[in-house]
Automatic annotation (TrEMBL):
<protein>
    <recommendedName>
        <fullName>NmrA-like domain-containing protein</fullName>
    </recommendedName>
</protein>
<keyword id="KW-0560">Oxidoreductase</keyword>
<dbReference type="Pfam" id="PF05368">
    <property type="entry name" value="NmrA"/>
</dbReference>
<keyword id="KW-0521">NADP</keyword>
<dbReference type="InterPro" id="IPR008030">
    <property type="entry name" value="NmrA-like"/>
</dbReference>
<dbReference type="InterPro" id="IPR051609">
    <property type="entry name" value="NmrA/Isoflavone_reductase-like"/>
</dbReference>
<feature type="domain" description="NmrA-like">
    <location>
        <begin position="6"/>
        <end position="234"/>
    </location>
</feature>
<dbReference type="InterPro" id="IPR036291">
    <property type="entry name" value="NAD(P)-bd_dom_sf"/>
</dbReference>
Length: 324
């Protein structure tokens, strides 16, 4: 494709854990001209230089506080806006929607990138559902994309465990907890590979106005632990089975511990974590079968030529030493 025919995409949160690998894959696909929004305080992140080297135009902008006309100018002649913003900024995406609508953007992909959960099941997902209502009412064309869970959020790590975020570090003791019967499937993906399928989804007119599940594999917790034990046998004694009653109690204690979305409060975060695990591994909201029944397109079925990393391949690589 020439520069004239490449489709213009803006990734908001391009230096984040989700945004950066998506931008890389969009560039790799040679189908898109990619620009990425970075908050001014983050322009020094090492990822920025690398993205620029790959051809991503970096736009330093405090988008949450930007004037509507600035965002509208940013989105002029842009085909797709992909939001990979932080969970704390979910509601602020309304500003992106207003500007994208005014600029005539053809598709908006909100910062979901999580597991499928019905309204009322998870506090974080309910914030996303509330934002979706705004998006739907705006009339802006959209595609919703769910992943399930990143492999490294589910496979037990070899100790010592160093959490990826401050909040996760506060509940680091839960990293070997196992929920439900162990046999409920959940969809999984390597965070670094999400963009391979996303590049296809946003190049497909038929996914406008649709919900698409982007995953590489699915596995139950018994299957996850069996792979973990195969490649790192020392993990076997670390598995802690949590009863459904304990899950319920932790959720209730978490909800009672804070009236705000308090990510410094250990009880509150434990409550959120157990809510998520209940949804995935007790209620079974996020299997491919559940997604299909709820009208989700399964990207790996729709684009069977896209290479995938199976759970077994991921485990072999992760426990083999070359962790990604
Ligand atoms: N499926 C899964 O397993 C999974 C796992 C994690 C996250 N997610 C979802 O993926 C989406 C993106 O999450 P992420 O983990 O990729 O995000 P992230 O990397 O933590 O943050 C994305 C960007 O948000 C900005 N940011 C950081 N802290 C912020 C704050 N307190 N308030 C406002 N902005 C902030 C930063 O932008 P600058 O670099 O421009 O400063 C950062 O690069 C979310 O919807 C999240 O729920 C899914």
């Amino acid at each position: 494709m020439s520069k004239e025919t490449e489709k213009r995409v803006v990734v908001v949160g391009v230096a984040g854990r989700t945004g950066e690998p998506i931008a890389r894959s969009l560039i790799d696909s040679r189908r898109f001209l990619v620009a990425g929004v970075v908050r001014p305080e983050s322009v020094g992140k090492p990822a920025i230089k690398e993205l620029e080297g790959l051809g991503v135009s970096i736009i330093p902008l405090d988008w949450q506080n930007a004037a509507p006309r600035v965002l509208e100018a940013l989105f002029t002649d842009v085909e797709t806006v992909i939001s990979a913003c932080h969970p704390a900024a979910i509601a602020d995406q309304a500003k992106l929607v207003d500007a994208a609508k005014a600029a005539g953007v053809k598709r908006f992909v909100p910062s979901d990138w999580s597991a499928i959960a019905p309204r009322g099941a998870l506090k974080l997902e309910d914030m996303k559902h509330t934002f979706h209502d705004y998006l739907f009412e705006s009339g802006l064309p959209y595609t919703l994309i769910a992943l399930g869970t990143w492999y490294d959020g589910i496979f037990p790590p070899i100790p010592p465990y160093i959490a990826p975020t401050a909040e996760r570090q506060l509940i680091a003791d839960t990293v070997y907890h196992s929920f439900g019967t162990g046999q409920v499937k959940n969809t999984l993906i390597n965070r670094l590979n999400v963009g391979r399928l996303v590049a296809r989804v946003i190049d497909d007119e038929d996914t406008i106005g649709k919900k698409v599940l982007v995953n590489e594999d699915e596995a139950s917790l018994d299957e996850v632990w069996s792979l973990a034990e195969k490649y790192a046998p020392q993990l076997a004694p670390l598995r802690v089975r949590v009863s459904d009653e304990d899950v319920e109690r932790t959720i209730i204690e978490g909800a009672a511990s804070s009236t705000t979305f308090d990510l410094k409060n250990v009880k509150f975060i434990k409550g959120l974590f157990n809510e998520a695990m209940k949804s995935l591994y007790i209620s079974g909201h996020n299997s491919e079968a559940a997604a299909r029944a709820d009208g989700w397109i399964i990207a790996r079925e729709r684009y069977p030529d896209v290479p995938l990393q199976t759970a077994e391949e991921w485990a072999k690589e992760y426990y083999g030493g070359s962790r990604r």
